[in-house]
């Protein structure tokens, strides 16, 4: 194992432990469930005794809760009701909306969604109004909105949302937190501070968070001198410290992040303060473990035993993780405090596993299994009490009752309970008075981070209403996870299909576990190793063809393969022969055609490593982009195969009078020419081909002249899958070869993806041809814009912008070409975006740390340089990424650029590369600016970042674009989920990957039979029921 992706694991025994963790994490849930059940039965934890404790606990809490303002508020508007979540959204969004008018519009739109007229819920508004000294006991909300002036209402909103934030967040900054924290320590509370924030978007963002963490630790240390018996702690989210907290960045990010975390630990050691590494998403799991191992091994920290680590019981490997941490501590002669939680990123883990095509989820899909896992983790913590100190973080009364019952016979094992600030005050008070140590988990930060924080806490503590309402409903909270599992019958959640079965009638394309360092190690070895270069491709020996070497855009002196270009004679002969087999192929049952295409999908995955190398070396794709394209190609095959059988296996029976039979039959058109681009040399290339083949056509396919090796490789796989060479012909050549193909008299259809100018030339050529009218399916580019409105979540928006504009070097037809930012938030957003842009790593795409690879050819680099000079003259350069160390001087590299411009008139054509112009706008100017963009005639993709649903509907309904995206990147359309294609200058339709695409490749024929003339016997029984 190379040290590049496993940063710190010197011990072979620890390596074995890591392997077990990886194996357990993606085991089938049914298997893990059986293991959990067997282990849990050994505990002999009586549900009857647990529920007796639960009843006593609930009775006590019901009495204690009556005087708690916070718990009364959550009774009135529980946080997981529509009104409660609505208030959280307001509290998150309103403090960062600097435009008063936008804030007012947003408030009015949002507040009308709630059911505020329920008499039991008027307490909340009365509470807020009392704080504003408005002497109103009860009122109807909508009349209030009309009575208050706009200025008064804005004041009301600002104060009300600040009050809501204050319920759950100690203070917006360290200085104000100091005063409030002092009061808590006076009361004898133990505290764990959490500085809100995660996913740093650049170096300044990460540095700012690190500096604030240092301030928090120093503050806790200073307070400890006043309260020497206290044992304060800070919880740290690593992703907030650095934007590169991901495995594939390798040692580049590890060394920098380790230095930051170690410096925090040294400060904590000096101040006698604890520091806990918080748990985040599963794909960061191995990175976090490497950090922990390095810290526990660091001689500068050898005398410090206040390190903490979070274990999430919803992970399938959580029990093994506790054992692993115990062995690690024993080996290093250290101690750890373990914060045991249910897990806060459950929804993220489900979505991510589905998106990347994992075979299994890394988390349990049933809450009963998470409950069993929690108790079994606690058992293991007790077993390792000499090195691991349990800190139990849960608000679930049922879980607490089970813990208390389990602990009753193990009193010698010390435990600590933790509760969230603003929640569970009565519960914490009761635990404390009964002799159990408790700690308050306290967030510090601004209101803009509140919603994400509380949403995760709701997931972590159970989103069921009964976990947050007083008085509790005992029957709903009754603890008996084994019985509940028996009642379910299944050992997984049937409402959550496994990632391979995400789609109803087809398999989701498989993926790789990129949370596993061994996966990355293998991928990089395949793309950069000595055996990565494939054999040369000679599909059709031709005496008069020209041999051509293919060079990598990452290094123009590196030959990666050689092809034989198709001569004019060969093109003519190939197209004529393919056309002559069209009727024969059309007669092949669609089920057999679909079977071959499905087999092709399996062949593509079986040869993913060869294709991965070619996509990186020939097309300049990064490793992750190449893997995504392989999966998209598989999705095209599987989806079109399913659709073809559904559409073409039987004729469509049409309505008509009795005595008549009307049927619509689909047939192939004949020979289709498929011309594909270099930016998606596998997925678009094969997508066009399989759609035409499934509809009963033969195909002559020409890839872009820059990427023939990828095309040659997948065509070989198509032949291996059983597609006859007579019906699929590969033509290799330049634009003149494509022109010759278009003019061929046997052609009955053209599928083209590329530039608008080339599409127009093809259309013109077809219009001048003699013979049948030939249909053209054209997918072209666009001036794709994204609107960022004042209510947008800025940090997430920056991430979406980076992906949209600079993924694959901006060399996607859907890439972001113009960013529109509302003036009121433009300064903050552009500062963050500029910083994040400058942190992008430009280099050889075959190295995993590369964010942006090369431009496909030298002439395009020169065009981009000209555009850059133009925008520097007529605009202002905001940011530019550096060229990285792995970028060869012989490669075609162009760094991402961010420019500010003053008018849409400066952008009249598509810029195919990593240049992003930015235009600031006022709220009043937006309609005019959008109309200027629409008038340019393009209509491919568009994005909107906003929290305003009314604005979303307004723009989405009027925008003349094929794909409209809200609060997400504008690239990455998924087959079947987001059919892709534009309108106007951006394409003809129908959309690729959609339900209408195959029909365009087919010819319709209707057969009408007068069955009465044939003595249709059914006519004689019409009068019978």
From TrEMBL:
Residues 71-122 form the Proline dehydrogenase PutA domain. Pfam families: Aldedh (PF00171), Pro_dh (PF01619), Pro_dh-DNA_bdg (PF14850). One of its GO terms (cellular component) is cytoplasmic side of plasma membrane. The active site is at 779, 813. One of its GO terms (biological process) is L-proline catabolic process to L-glutamate. Residues 187-464 form the Proline dehydrogenase domain. The keyword Oxidoreductase applies. Residues 545-1002 form the Aldehyde dehydrogenase domain. It comes from the Bacteria. Keywords: NAD, Oxidoreductase. The keyword Oxidoreductase applies. InterPro entries: Ald_DH/histidinol_DH, Ald_DH_C, Ald_DH_N, Aldehyde_DH_dom, Bifunct_PutA, FAD-linked_oxidoreductase-like, PRODH_PutA_dom_I/II, PRODH_PutA_dom_II. GO terms for molecular function: DNA-binding transcription factor activity; L-glutamate gamma-semialdehyde dehydrogenase activity; proline dehydrogenase activity. PANTHER family: DELTA-1-PYRROLINE-5-CARBOXYLATE DEHYDROGENASE 1, ISOFORM A-RELATED (PTHR42862), DELTA-1-PYRROLINE-5-CARBOXYLATE DEHYDROGENASE 2, ISOFORM A-RELATED (PTHR42862:SF1). This is Proline dehydrogenase and delta 1-pyrroline-5-carboxylate dehydrogenase. It comes from Methylacidiphilum infernorum (isolate V4) (Methylokorus infernorum (strain V4)). The lineage of its organism: Bacteria, Pseudomonadati, Verrucomicrobiota, Methylacidiphilae, Methylacidiphilales.
